Protein backbone atom coordinates (compact mmCIF):
# COMPACT_ATOMS: atom_id res chain seq x y z
CA UNK A 1 0.00 0.00 0.00
CA UNK A 2 1.54 3.27 -1.07
CA UNK A 3 1.64 6.32 1.15
CA UNK A 4 -1.25 8.14 -0.57
CA UNK A 5 -3.62 5.17 -0.20
CA UNK A 6 -2.61 4.70 3.44
CA UNK A 7 -3.19 8.37 4.10
CA UNK A 8 -6.65 8.17 2.49
CA UNK A 9 -7.59 5.10 4.57
CA UNK A 10 -6.34 6.81 7.73
CA UNK A 11 -8.35 9.99 7.00
CA UNK A 12 -11.44 7.94 6.19
CA UNK A 13 -11.07 6.03 9.46
CA UNK A 14 -10.65 9.29 11.41
CA UNK A 15 -13.69 10.79 9.67
CA UNK A 16 -15.75 7.68 10.44
CA UNK A 17 -14.73 7.82 14.10
CA UNK A 18 -15.54 11.52 14.22
CA UNK A 19 -18.98 10.97 12.64
CA UNK A 20 -19.68 8.04 14.99
CA UNK A 21 -18.69 10.15 18.00
CA UNK A 22 -20.77 13.11 16.76
CA UNK A 23 -23.86 10.95 16.15
CA UNK A 24 -23.42 9.17 19.50
CA UNK A 25 -22.95 12.45 21.39
CA UNK A 26 -25.91 14.13 19.66
CA UNK A 27 -28.18 11.14 20.28
CA UNK A 28 -27.02 10.87 23.89
CA UNK A 29 -27.70 14.55 24.54
CA UNK A 30 -31.03 14.38 22.73
CA UNK A 31 -32.10 11.40 24.80
CA UNK A 32 -31.68 13.54 27.94
CA UNK A 33 -34.03 16.16 26.56
CA UNK A 34 -37.80 15.71 26.76
CA UNK A 35 -39.24 13.68 23.86
CA UNK A 36 -41.35 15.24 21.13
CA UNK A 37 -42.48 15.08 17.51
CA UNK A 38 -39.92 15.35 14.72
CA UNK A 39 -39.77 18.98 13.50
CA UNK A 40 -39.81 20.03 9.87
CA UNK A 41 -37.01 22.24 8.54
CA UNK A 42 -37.52 25.97 9.16
CA UNK A 43 -41.13 25.77 10.44
CA UNK A 44 -40.52 23.22 13.21
CA UNK A 45 -43.78 21.69 14.51
CA UNK A 46 -45.97 24.66 13.61
CA UNK A 47 -48.17 22.67 11.19
CA UNK A 48 -48.82 19.99 13.82
CA UNK A 49 -50.56 22.44 16.14
CA UNK A 50 -54.21 23.34 15.62
CA UNK A 51 -54.19 27.14 15.63
CA UNK A 52 -57.90 27.22 16.57
CA UNK A 53 -57.40 25.10 19.70
CA UNK A 54 -53.75 24.84 20.55
CA UNK A 55 -54.29 23.64 24.12
CA UNK A 56 -56.31 20.66 22.94
CA UNK A 57 -53.72 19.83 20.25
CA UNK A 58 -50.91 19.83 22.81
CA UNK A 59 -52.91 17.62 25.19
CA UNK A 60 -53.26 15.16 22.32
CA UNK A 61 -49.48 15.21 21.81
CA UNK A 62 -48.92 14.53 25.50
CA UNK A 63 -50.80 11.22 25.15
CA UNK A 64 -47.89 10.05 22.99
CA UNK A 65 -44.92 11.89 24.46
CA UNK A 66 -45.87 12.24 28.13
CA UNK A 67 -46.54 15.22 30.42
CA UNK A 68 -43.18 16.90 29.63
CA UNK A 69 -42.33 17.15 25.95
CA UNK A 70 -40.61 19.43 23.47
CA UNK A 71 -41.81 21.02 20.27
CA UNK A 72 -40.14 23.46 17.91
CA UNK A 73 -41.35 26.96 17.14
CA UNK A 74 -39.35 27.34 13.97
CA UNK A 75 -35.80 26.48 15.02
CA UNK A 76 -36.45 27.23 18.71
CA UNK A 77 -37.04 24.31 21.05
CA UNK A 78 -39.72 25.01 23.65
CA UNK A 79 -40.95 22.70 26.40
CA UNK A 80 -44.61 22.02 27.18
CA UNK A 81 -45.70 21.04 30.70
CA UNK A 82 -48.96 19.14 30.63
CA UNK A 83 -51.29 18.24 33.51
CA UNK A 84 -51.93 19.42 37.05
CA UNK A 85 -49.13 17.55 38.83
CA UNK A 86 -46.37 18.63 36.44
CA UNK A 87 -47.49 22.28 36.24
CA UNK A 88 -47.74 22.44 40.03
CA UNK A 89 -44.25 20.92 40.38
CA UNK A 90 -42.78 23.58 38.07
CA UNK A 91 -44.61 26.71 39.24
CA UNK A 92 -44.68 25.99 42.97
CA UNK A 93 -42.06 23.41 43.96
CA UNK A 94 -39.44 24.50 41.38
CA UNK A 95 -40.57 28.11 41.06
CA UNK A 96 -37.12 29.65 41.43
CA UNK A 97 -35.93 27.91 38.23
CA UNK A 98 -39.06 28.65 36.16
CA UNK A 99 -39.60 32.19 37.46
CA UNK A 100 -38.19 34.22 34.56
CA UNK A 101 -40.78 35.46 32.07
CA UNK A 102 -40.34 33.88 28.63
CA UNK A 103 -40.23 36.12 25.59
CA UNK A 104 -43.38 36.96 23.63
CA UNK A 105 -42.20 38.90 20.56
CA UNK A 106 -45.67 40.23 19.72
CA UNK A 107 -45.86 42.00 23.12
CA UNK A 108 -42.14 42.63 23.55
CA UNK A 109 -42.19 45.15 20.69
CA UNK A 110 -44.20 47.47 22.98
CA UNK A 111 -43.49 46.36 26.55
CA UNK A 112 -39.74 45.67 26.03
CA UNK A 113 -39.43 43.79 29.34
CA UNK A 114 -41.05 46.55 31.42
CA UNK A 115 -44.33 46.60 33.37
CA UNK A 116 -45.75 43.48 35.03
CA UNK A 117 -47.32 40.89 32.74
CA UNK A 118 -44.50 40.75 30.17
CA UNK A 119 -41.67 42.05 32.36
CA UNK A 120 -38.30 40.45 32.92
CA UNK A 121 -37.74 39.05 36.39
CA UNK A 122 -35.76 42.05 37.69
CA UNK A 123 -38.50 44.51 36.72
CA UNK A 124 -41.23 42.20 37.97
CA UNK A 125 -39.67 42.06 41.45
CA UNK A 126 -40.14 45.81 41.80
CA UNK A 127 -43.33 46.43 39.84
CA UNK A 128 -45.53 43.65 41.25
CA UNK A 129 -45.34 44.53 44.98
CA UNK A 130 -45.69 48.25 44.28
CA UNK A 131 -48.66 47.65 41.97
CA UNK A 132 -50.36 45.27 44.39
CA UNK A 133 -49.98 47.70 47.30
CA UNK A 134 -51.18 50.67 45.23
CA UNK A 135 -54.20 48.83 43.84
CA UNK A 136 -55.17 47.86 47.38
CA UNK A 137 -54.77 51.48 48.48
CA UNK A 138 -57.33 52.42 45.85
CA UNK A 139 -59.81 49.84 47.05
CA UNK A 140 -59.00 46.57 45.24
CA UNK A 141 -60.25 43.72 47.42
CA UNK A 142 -62.03 46.13 49.76
CA UNK A 143 -65.52 47.51 50.19
CA UNK A 144 -64.70 50.53 48.06
CA UNK A 145 -64.12 48.56 44.87
CA UNK A 146 -67.14 46.37 45.60
CA UNK A 147 -69.30 49.50 45.61
CA UNK A 148 -67.64 50.63 42.38
CA UNK A 149 -68.56 47.30 40.70
CA UNK A 150 -72.11 47.51 42.06
CA UNK A 151 -72.42 51.01 40.60
CA UNK A 152 -71.09 49.86 37.23
CA UNK A 153 -73.44 46.86 37.30
CA UNK A 154 -76.34 49.30 37.59
CA UNK A 155 -75.12 51.26 34.54
CA UNK A 156 -74.67 48.03 32.56
CA UNK A 157 -78.15 46.77 33.44
CA UNK A 158 -79.60 50.08 32.26
CA UNK A 159 -77.70 49.78 28.97
CA UNK A 160 -79.17 46.31 28.45
CA UNK A 161 -82.63 47.58 29.35
CA UNK A 162 -82.30 50.24 26.64
CA UNK A 163 -81.80 47.57 23.97
CA UNK A 164 -85.60 46.98 24.15
CA UNK A 165 -85.25 43.19 23.94
CA UNK A 166 -83.65 43.38 20.48
CA UNK A 167 -80.79 40.93 19.73
CA UNK A 168 -77.27 42.39 19.77
CA UNK A 169 -73.62 41.44 20.19
CA UNK A 170 -72.74 42.07 23.89
CA UNK A 171 -68.97 42.33 23.31
CA UNK A 172 -68.48 46.06 23.73
CA UNK A 173 -71.05 46.56 26.48
CA UNK A 174 -69.23 43.99 28.60
CA UNK A 175 -65.82 45.45 27.72
CA UNK A 176 -67.01 48.91 28.74
CA UNK A 177 -68.30 47.71 32.10
CA UNK A 178 -65.20 45.74 33.10
CA UNK A 179 -62.88 48.41 31.74
CA UNK A 180 -64.64 51.13 33.73
CA UNK A 181 -63.89 49.28 36.97
CA UNK A 182 -60.15 49.20 36.32
CA UNK A 183 -60.19 52.72 34.79
CA UNK A 184 -61.58 54.11 38.04
CA UNK A 185 -58.46 52.82 39.81
CA UNK A 186 -55.80 53.45 37.18
CA UNK A 187 -57.08 56.70 35.64
CA UNK A 188 -59.29 57.93 38.47
CA UNK A 189 -62.47 58.07 36.38
CA UNK A 190 -64.93 55.99 34.38
CA UNK A 191 -66.09 56.56 30.80
CA UNK A 192 -69.63 57.10 29.58
CA UNK A 193 -70.88 54.28 27.38
CA UNK A 194 -71.27 56.61 24.39
CA UNK A 195 -67.73 58.03 24.67
CA UNK A 196 -66.15 57.74 21.19
CA UNK A 197 -62.58 57.70 22.53
CA UNK A 198 -63.53 54.86 24.88
CA UNK A 199 -64.99 52.92 21.95
CA UNK A 200 -61.75 53.34 20.00
CA UNK A 201 -59.63 52.12 22.92
CA UNK A 202 -61.79 49.03 23.36
CA UNK A 203 -61.71 48.31 19.63
CA UNK A 204 -57.91 48.44 19.61
CA UNK A 205 -57.79 46.15 22.61
CA UNK A 206 -60.31 43.67 21.24
CA UNK A 207 -58.78 43.53 17.77
CA UNK A 208 -55.23 43.16 19.05
CA UNK A 209 -56.23 40.16 21.19
CA UNK A 210 -58.08 38.58 18.27
CA UNK A 211 -55.09 38.96 15.95
CA UNK A 212 -52.57 37.78 18.54
CA UNK A 213 -54.69 34.63 19.00
CA UNK A 214 -54.94 34.02 15.25
CA UNK A 215 -52.57 32.05 13.02
CA UNK A 216 -50.96 35.37 12.04
CA UNK A 217 -50.12 36.00 15.68
CA UNK A 218 -48.56 32.55 15.95
CA UNK A 219 -46.47 33.19 12.85
CA UNK A 220 -45.22 36.45 14.36
CA UNK A 221 -44.28 34.69 17.60
CA UNK A 222 -42.29 32.06 15.70
CA UNK A 223 -40.74 34.19 12.95
CA UNK A 224 -40.75 37.70 14.45
CA UNK A 225 -37.40 38.67 12.90
CA UNK A 226 -38.87 38.07 9.44
CA UNK A 227 -42.57 38.79 9.92
CA UNK A 228 -42.05 42.37 11.07
CA UNK A 229 -40.79 43.17 7.56
CA UNK A 230 -43.60 41.36 5.71
CA UNK A 231 -47.08 42.69 4.90
CA UNK A 232 -50.12 41.12 6.52
CA UNK A 233 -52.72 41.47 9.29
CA UNK A 234 -50.04 40.90 11.96
CA UNK A 235 -48.78 44.43 11.38
CA UNK A 236 -52.03 45.77 12.80
CA UNK A 237 -51.16 44.26 16.19
CA UNK A 238 -48.29 46.67 16.80
CA UNK A 239 -50.43 49.57 15.55
CA UNK A 240 -53.18 48.74 18.05
CA UNK A 241 -50.76 48.19 20.94
CA UNK A 242 -48.91 51.42 20.19
CA UNK A 243 -52.24 53.25 19.98
CA UNK A 244 -53.09 52.03 23.49
CA UNK A 245 -49.61 52.98 24.67
CA UNK A 246 -50.04 56.51 23.28
CA UNK A 247 -53.29 56.89 25.19
CA UNK A 248 -51.58 55.91 28.46
CA UNK A 249 -48.76 58.37 27.75
CA UNK A 250 -51.36 61.11 27.22
CA UNK A 251 -53.04 60.30 30.54
CA UNK A 252 -49.68 60.34 32.33
CA UNK A 253 -48.88 63.79 30.95
CA UNK A 254 -52.27 65.09 32.08
CA UNK A 255 -51.63 63.78 35.59
CA UNK A 256 -48.17 65.33 35.67
CA UNK A 257 -49.62 68.77 34.97
CA UNK A 258 -52.01 68.64 37.94
CA UNK A 259 -50.13 66.34 40.34
CA UNK A 260 -50.55 66.93 44.08
CA UNK A 261 -47.98 64.79 45.90
CA UNK A 262 -50.06 64.88 49.07
CA UNK A 263 -53.25 63.75 47.40
CA UNK A 264 -52.79 60.96 44.82
CA UNK A 265 -55.96 60.51 42.76
CA UNK A 266 -55.17 57.23 41.05
CA UNK A 267 -52.50 54.64 40.23
CA UNK A 268 -50.70 56.99 37.84
CA UNK A 269 -50.35 59.69 40.51
CA UNK A 270 -48.95 57.16 42.98
CA UNK A 271 -46.34 56.00 40.48
CA UNK A 272 -45.36 59.57 39.61
CA UNK A 273 -44.88 60.33 43.32
CA UNK A 274 -42.71 57.23 43.66
CA UNK A 275 -40.68 58.34 40.64
CA UNK A 276 -40.01 61.69 42.33
CA UNK A 277 -38.92 59.96 45.53
CA UNK A 278 -36.52 57.72 43.60
CA UNK A 279 -35.12 60.25 41.15
CA UNK A 280 -31.75 60.42 42.95
CA UNK A 281 -31.18 56.70 42.34
CA UNK A 282 -29.86 56.17 38.83
CA UNK A 283 -30.66 52.44 39.02
CA UNK A 284 -34.26 52.95 40.11
CA UNK A 285 -36.93 50.93 38.32
CA UNK A 286 -39.45 53.70 38.85
CA UNK A 287 -39.18 55.57 35.55
CA UNK A 288 -41.47 56.57 32.70
CA UNK A 289 -41.10 53.38 30.64
CA UNK A 290 -42.09 51.22 33.59
CA UNK A 291 -44.97 53.53 34.46
CA UNK A 292 -46.47 53.37 30.96
CA UNK A 293 -45.90 49.60 30.61
CA UNK A 294 -47.34 48.86 34.06
CA UNK A 295 -50.47 50.96 33.52
CA UNK A 296 -50.96 49.43 30.08
CA UNK A 297 -50.60 45.90 31.55
CA UNK A 298 -53.21 46.56 34.24
CA UNK A 299 -55.59 48.36 31.87
CA UNK A 300 -55.33 45.58 29.29
CA UNK A 301 -55.70 42.67 31.71
CA UNK A 302 -58.46 44.31 33.73
CA UNK A 303 -60.54 44.88 30.62
CA UNK A 304 -60.16 41.96 28.23
CA UNK A 305 -59.86 38.99 30.59
CA UNK A 306 -63.08 39.69 32.47
CA UNK A 307 -65.16 40.84 29.50
CA UNK A 308 -64.16 37.77 27.47
CA UNK A 309 -65.01 35.45 30.38
CA UNK A 310 -68.43 37.06 30.83
CA UNK A 311 -69.08 36.94 27.09
CA UNK A 312 -68.20 33.25 27.01
CA UNK A 313 -70.33 32.67 30.10
CA UNK A 314 -73.49 34.13 28.54
CA UNK A 315 -72.98 32.01 25.42
CA UNK A 316 -72.78 28.89 27.60
CA UNK A 317 -75.96 29.84 29.45
CA UNK A 318 -77.75 30.27 26.11
CA UNK A 319 -76.66 26.73 25.29
CA UNK A 320 -77.94 25.39 28.61
CA UNK A 321 -81.15 27.26 29.56
CA UNK A 322 -81.79 24.73 32.34
CA UNK A 323 -78.63 25.96 34.08
CA UNK A 324 -79.76 29.55 33.70
CA UNK A 325 -83.12 28.61 35.24
CA UNK A 326 -81.38 27.11 38.29
CA UNK A 327 -79.39 30.32 38.64
CA UNK A 328 -82.59 32.36 38.56
CA UNK A 329 -84.09 30.14 41.27
CA UNK A 330 -81.09 30.57 43.58
CA UNK A 331 -80.86 34.32 42.96
CA UNK A 332 -84.59 34.75 43.68
CA UNK A 333 -84.34 32.62 46.83
CA UNK A 334 -81.33 34.46 48.29
CA UNK A 335 -81.80 38.00 46.96
CA UNK A 336 -85.27 38.36 45.54
CA UNK A 337 -85.75 40.93 42.76
CA UNK A 338 -85.06 44.08 44.77
CA UNK A 339 -81.89 43.50 46.81
CA UNK A 340 -78.67 44.24 44.91
CA UNK A 341 -76.05 41.50 45.24
CA UNK A 342 -72.98 41.98 47.43
CA UNK A 343 -69.94 39.81 47.89
CA UNK A 344 -71.21 38.36 51.18
CA UNK A 345 -74.05 36.74 49.26
CA UNK A 346 -71.61 34.46 47.42
CA UNK A 347 -71.29 32.04 50.35
CA UNK A 348 -75.09 31.61 50.34
CA UNK A 349 -75.20 30.84 46.62
CA UNK A 350 -73.23 27.60 46.05
CA UNK A 351 -74.78 26.79 42.67
CA UNK A 352 -74.05 30.26 41.29
CA UNK A 353 -70.51 30.06 42.62
CA UNK A 354 -70.07 26.63 41.01
CA UNK A 355 -71.37 27.86 37.64
CA UNK A 356 -68.97 30.83 37.67
CA UNK A 357 -66.04 28.52 38.48
CA UNK A 358 -67.11 26.14 35.72
CA UNK A 359 -67.36 29.02 33.22
CA UNK A 360 -63.76 29.96 34.03
CA UNK A 361 -62.62 26.34 33.83
CA UNK A 362 -64.42 25.56 30.59
CA UNK A 363 -63.64 28.76 28.71
CA UNK A 364 -59.93 28.23 29.43
CA UNK A 365 -59.01 31.88 28.93
CA UNK A 366 -55.19 31.53 28.68
CA UNK A 367 -54.67 28.01 27.30
CA UNK A 368 -50.87 28.00 27.30
CA UNK A 369 -50.39 30.41 30.21
CA UNK A 370 -47.76 33.13 29.80
CA UNK A 371 -44.39 31.51 28.99
CA UNK A 372 -41.58 31.05 31.50
CA UNK A 373 -37.86 30.69 30.91
CA UNK A 374 -35.45 28.48 32.84
CA UNK A 375 -32.74 30.45 34.65
CA UNK A 376 -30.37 27.43 34.70
CA UNK A 377 -30.17 23.83 33.53
CA UNK A 378 -32.61 21.70 35.49
CA UNK A 379 -33.31 17.98 35.83
CA UNK A 380 -37.10 17.87 35.70
CA UNK A 381 -39.28 14.76 35.63
CA UNK A 382 -36.29 12.72 34.45
CA UNK A 383 -35.29 15.09 31.63
CA UNK A 384 -32.80 17.91 31.17
CA UNK A 385 -34.29 21.30 30.36
CA UNK A 386 -31.40 23.61 29.38
CA UNK A 387 -30.95 27.13 30.71
CA UNK A 388 -32.80 29.74 28.67
CA UNK A 389 -35.47 27.34 27.38
CA UNK A 390 -38.91 28.82 26.89
CA UNK A 391 -41.43 26.76 28.87
CA UNK A 392 -45.23 26.77 28.58
CA UNK A 393 -47.02 25.44 31.70
CA UNK A 394 -50.31 24.64 29.94
CA UNK A 395 -53.31 25.89 31.91
CA UNK A 396 -55.62 24.11 29.46
CA UNK A 397 -54.11 20.79 30.51
CA UNK A 398 -54.75 21.65 34.17
CA UNK A 399 -58.30 22.95 33.80
CA UNK A 400 -59.17 20.00 31.54
CA UNK A 401 -57.16 17.38 33.45
CA UNK A 402 -59.28 14.17 33.47
CA UNK A 403 -57.68 13.07 36.75
CA UNK A 404 -59.01 16.20 38.46
CA UNK A 405 -62.34 16.74 36.67
CA UNK A 406 -64.77 13.90 35.98
CA UNK A 407 -65.95 15.18 32.58
CA UNK A 408 -63.50 17.89 31.52
CA UNK A 409 -64.84 18.32 27.96
CA UNK A 410 -68.39 18.93 29.20
CA UNK A 411 -69.75 22.03 30.90
CA UNK A 412 -70.68 20.65 34.31
CA UNK A 413 -71.18 22.84 37.42
CA UNK A 414 -71.07 19.58 39.39
CA UNK A 415 -67.29 19.76 39.15
CA UNK A 416 -67.55 22.29 41.99
CA UNK A 417 -70.44 20.83 44.01
CA UNK A 418 -70.41 18.01 46.56
CA UNK A 419 -73.13 15.39 47.07
CA UNK A 420 -75.04 17.82 49.31
CA UNK A 421 -75.06 20.64 46.77
CA UNK A 422 -72.48 22.65 48.69
CA UNK A 423 -69.63 24.39 46.91
CA UNK A 424 -66.37 22.43 46.86
CA UNK A 425 -62.91 23.63 45.90
CA UNK A 426 -60.63 21.90 43.43
CA UNK A 427 -56.84 22.29 43.55
CA UNK A 428 -56.67 22.18 39.77
CA UNK A 429 -58.79 25.30 39.42
CA UNK A 430 -56.08 27.75 38.42
CA UNK A 431 -57.38 30.01 35.63
CA UNK A 432 -55.21 32.80 37.11
CA UNK A 433 -52.14 30.53 37.04
CA UNK A 434 -50.39 29.72 40.32
CA UNK A 435 -47.20 30.38 42.26
CA UNK A 436 -45.37 33.70 42.43
CA UNK A 437 -46.67 34.91 39.07
CA UNK A 438 -50.35 34.34 39.85
CA UNK A 439 -52.51 37.15 38.44
CA UNK A 440 -52.42 40.12 40.84
CA UNK A 441 -56.01 40.98 39.93
CA UNK A 442 -57.43 37.58 40.93
CA UNK A 443 -59.51 38.94 43.83
CA UNK A 444 -60.92 41.77 41.73
CA UNK A 445 -61.76 39.38 38.90
CA UNK A 446 -63.66 36.98 41.16
CA UNK A 447 -65.61 39.88 42.61
CA UNK A 448 -66.50 41.26 39.17
CA UNK A 449 -67.64 37.92 37.76
CA UNK A 450 -70.00 37.32 40.67
CA UNK A 451 -71.48 40.82 40.93
CA UNK A 452 -71.89 41.41 37.19
CA UNK A 453 -73.35 37.99 36.43
CA UNK A 454 -75.79 37.98 39.36
CA UNK A 455 -76.91 41.59 38.73
CA UNK A 456 -77.68 40.81 35.10
CA UNK A 457 -79.50 37.53 35.77
CA UNK A 458 -81.45 39.11 38.62
CA UNK A 459 -82.93 41.52 36.09
CA UNK A 460 -83.06 39.59 32.83
CA UNK A 461 -83.67 36.27 31.14
CA UNK A 462 -81.33 35.51 28.25
CA UNK A 463 -82.77 34.73 24.83
CA UNK A 464 -81.21 33.62 21.56
CA UNK A 465 -82.77 33.29 18.11
CA UNK A 466 -80.67 30.14 17.67
CA UNK A 467 -81.94 26.87 19.16
CA UNK A 468 -79.76 25.72 22.10
CA UNK A 469 -78.75 22.50 20.32
CA UNK A 470 -77.33 24.58 17.45
CA UNK A 471 -75.28 26.94 19.65
CA UNK A 472 -71.55 26.28 19.32
CA UNK A 473 -69.64 26.79 22.58
CA UNK A 474 -66.28 25.66 21.23
CA UNK A 475 -63.80 28.55 20.94
CA UNK A 476 -63.60 30.50 17.71
CA UNK A 477 -59.89 30.89 18.45
CA UNK A 478 -57.84 29.34 21.23
CA UNK A 479 -54.17 30.26 21.05
CA UNK A 480 -52.93 33.10 23.26
CA UNK A 481 -56.50 33.71 24.47
CA UNK A 482 -59.62 31.56 24.04
CA UNK A 483 -62.19 33.67 22.21
CA UNK A 484 -65.85 32.57 22.00
CA UNK A 485 -67.90 32.42 18.83
CA UNK A 486 -69.57 35.67 17.76
CA UNK A 487 -73.22 35.63 18.77
CA UNK A 488 -76.22 37.81 19.51
CA UNK A 489 -78.66 37.64 22.40
CA UNK A 490 -81.62 39.51 23.81
CA UNK A 491 -82.16 40.53 27.42
CA UNK A 492 -85.79 40.02 28.46
CA UNK A 493 -86.78 41.87 31.64
CA UNK A 494 -87.95 39.55 34.41
TrEMBL record:
Per the UniProt entry, the signal peptide is none
A GO BP term here is: epoxygenase P450 pathway
Q: Which GO terms describe its cellular component?
A: endoplasmic reticulum membrane
MF GO annotations: arachidonate epoxygenase activity; heme binding; iron ion binding; oxidoreductase activity, acting on paired donors, with incorporation or reduction of molecular oxygen, reduced flavin or flavoprotein as one donor, and incorporation of one atom of oxygen
What compartments host this protein? Endoplasmic reticulum membrane; Microsome membrane
CC cofactor: heme
Query: What are the protein's UniProt keywords?
Result: Endoplasmic reticulum, Heme, Iron, Membrane, Metal-binding, Microsome, Monooxygenase, Oxidoreductase, Transmembrane, Transmembrane helix
Top-level division of the source organism's lineage: Eukaryota
Name the major location.
Answer: endoplasmic reticulum
The portions of this protein that span the membrane are 6-24
Which parts of the sequence bind heme? Answer: 439
Q: Which PANTHER family match?
A: CYTOCHROME P450 2G1-LIKE-RELATED (PTHR24300:SF153), CYTOCHROME P450 508A4-RELATED (PTHR24300)
UniProt lists the family membership as follows: Belongs to the cytochrome P450 family.
This protein is called: Cytochrome P450 2A4-like isoform X1
Source species: Geotrypetes seraphini
- Designated gene of the protein: LOC117366199
Amino acid sequence: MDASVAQTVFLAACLSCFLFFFIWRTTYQRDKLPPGPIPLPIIGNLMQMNSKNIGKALMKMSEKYGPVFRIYFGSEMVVILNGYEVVKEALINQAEVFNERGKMPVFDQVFQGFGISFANEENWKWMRPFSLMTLKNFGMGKKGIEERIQEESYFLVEQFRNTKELPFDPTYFLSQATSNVICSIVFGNRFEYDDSEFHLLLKMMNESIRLISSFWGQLYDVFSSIMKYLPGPHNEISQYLKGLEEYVVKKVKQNQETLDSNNPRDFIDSFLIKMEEEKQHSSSHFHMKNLVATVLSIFFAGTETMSTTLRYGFLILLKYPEIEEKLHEEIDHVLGRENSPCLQDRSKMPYTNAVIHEIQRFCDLLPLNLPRETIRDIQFQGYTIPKGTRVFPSLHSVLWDPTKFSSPESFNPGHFLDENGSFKKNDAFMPFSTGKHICLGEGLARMELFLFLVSILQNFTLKSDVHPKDIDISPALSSFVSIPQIYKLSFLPR
